[in-house]
Amino acid sequence: MNPTIVPGEGWYSEHLSWHWLFWQNAALTIPFILCLIMSVPNEAIRQSPARSDHAGMLLGASGFACLFVALDQGERLFWFQSPFIAGMFYVGTVLLVAFVLRELVTEAPGIALSYLLKPNVTLLVVLVGLIRFTVLNTSFIPSIFLASVHGLRPLEVGDTLRWVAVPQILFAPCVAFMLLHLDARRVIAIGFATVALAFGLGTQLTPDWAEGNFIPSQLLQALGQTMALTSIIYFFAKHVTAEHALTFGAVVQTTRLFSGQLGTTSIAVTQRVMEQIHSNLLGLHVNVFSSETLERLAAQSSLFGTTLNGNPAEVPAGAIALLDRAVRVQATTLSLADNYRLAAACALGGIALTLLLRRAPTP
After folding, report:
1. pLDDT in single tens digits along all 363 residues of the chain
2. Would you say 187 and 130 are in contact if contact means Cβ atoms under 8 Å apart?
3. What are phi and psi of 50, to 5 degrees?
4. What does the alpha-carbon distance between residue 103 and residue 119 come to, in Å, rounded to a whole number?
5. What is the 3-state secondary structure (H, E, C) of the chain?
6. How far apart are CA 79 and CA 65, in angstroms?
7. Are 129 and 260 in contact (CB under 8 A)?
8. 329 contacts 207 by C-beta, under 8 angstroms
């Protein structure tokens, strides 16, 4: 449901206040609490004789928190040029190494790392990370494109992004029905294939695209990610015993959140790097000695009532600004298409990993 943030941001900014971006989540917790009260049985609390691994949990949580902050703020602070970001990466890495070592040597580990060595478990963790990475890497491309190229506000791109959010709610029961009659591994592969097809459509992005051009790829992405993520969690749950329930929950949630942050960070990094590369390559072909450049400048100069007569020095500043914007728009478009290619490659990798999954153990 992350794509709904952008249209929600626009609506709240126009009609209420941006504070409601946070209050909406607080309001949604009320029905969740009521559902838990009505569904959780009233059982006596049984005290576990084993000691809790508070130190290990603190080390792991602190380590991931440091890395999460570094990934979230790294692009804004120019990564390792910032002592703060470098320090967060260093401290986070040290804390995670300490966490792993403690879990390996302690008698009562909070997270049973040996669980990751069981058949299929590591593959499923990677698949959870891949689907979250690809989804959050591409979900915001339409809003970035429409804002950068066409100058639209968040409220104006909401209709496009709803084609990702709403179909997930409607299609989820269909996925549940499919899982009752099909091998979950097949549904996972179909989901990744659908997502890869959606990203393939996205690679055809051009500066002429408008909101409607994104709908086919957004709809396929919504269907594919619903199939893939739901099926992965369903199949993953078949590998869980009561002994490893806590480990399962911690691993899945950590992977989901961390991969999501990697996805949102990668789109910013990929766009910045590839936009610079494309801008440089495009700029190599834009010079006053190129006949195509002179023709375009002559056409744009006529908009300002100026005739060049073959003299580049007479080009008005407005015509140069239009040419500069055309180069920037094309570079932005190509960089966002590269993001789709990256996500499509990850989706194809997900299909390959799915083929390596074995049958789930019998209960």
Report:
1. 444 454 556 566 666 776 777 777 788 889 989 988 888 877 776 665 556 778 889 999 999 999 999 999 999 898 999 999 999 999 999 999 999 999 998 888 888 888 988 989 999 999 999 999 988 877 788 888 988 888 877 666 666 667 667 777 888 889 999 999 999 999 999 999 999 999 999 999 999 998 888 889 988 998 999 999 999 999 999 998 888 888 898 999 999 999 989 988 998 899 999 999 999 998 888 776 677 776 777 777 766 666 666 666 667 777 778 888 888 999 999 999 999 999 999 999 999 999 999 998 876
2. no
3. -75, 150
4. 20
5. CHHHHHHHHHHHHHHCCCCHHHHHHHHHHHHHHHHHHHHCCCCCCCCCCCCCCHHHHHHHHHHHHHHHHHHHHHCCCCHHHCHHHHHHHHHHHHHHHHHHHHHHHCCCCCCCHHHHHCCCHHHHHHHHHHHHHHHHHHCCHHHHHHHHHCCCCHHHHHHHHHHHHHHHHHHHHHHHHHHHHCCHHHHHHHHHHHHHHHHHHHCCCCCCCCHHHHHHHHHHHHHHHHHHHHHHHHHHHCCCCHHHHHHHHHHHHHHHHHHHHHHHHHHHHHHHHHHHHHHHHHHCCCCCCCHHHHHHHHHHHHCCCCCCCCCHHHCCHHHHHHHHHHHHHHHHHHHHHHHHHHHHHHHHHHHHHHCCCCCCCCC
6. 17
7. no
8. yes
- Count of residues for the chain? 363
> Alpha-carbon distance 123 to 352, whole Å?
11
Q: Which residue has the tokens 């320090």?
A: 87
pTM (two decimals): 0.84
* Residue whose C-alpha is closest to residue 135's, from 326, 325, 353, 346: 346
Non-local CB neighbours of 124 within 8 Å, separated by 6+ positions: 232, 235, 236, 239, 357
Closest to 254 (Cα-Cα) out of 63, 109, 95, 123 = 63
Q: Are 264 and 135 in contact (CB under 8 A)?
A: no
Asked if residue 164 lies in contact with residue 138, where contact means CB atoms within 8 angstroms, the answer is no
**Per-residue CA distances from 176 to 171, 180, 286, 324 (Å):** 9, 7, 54, 51
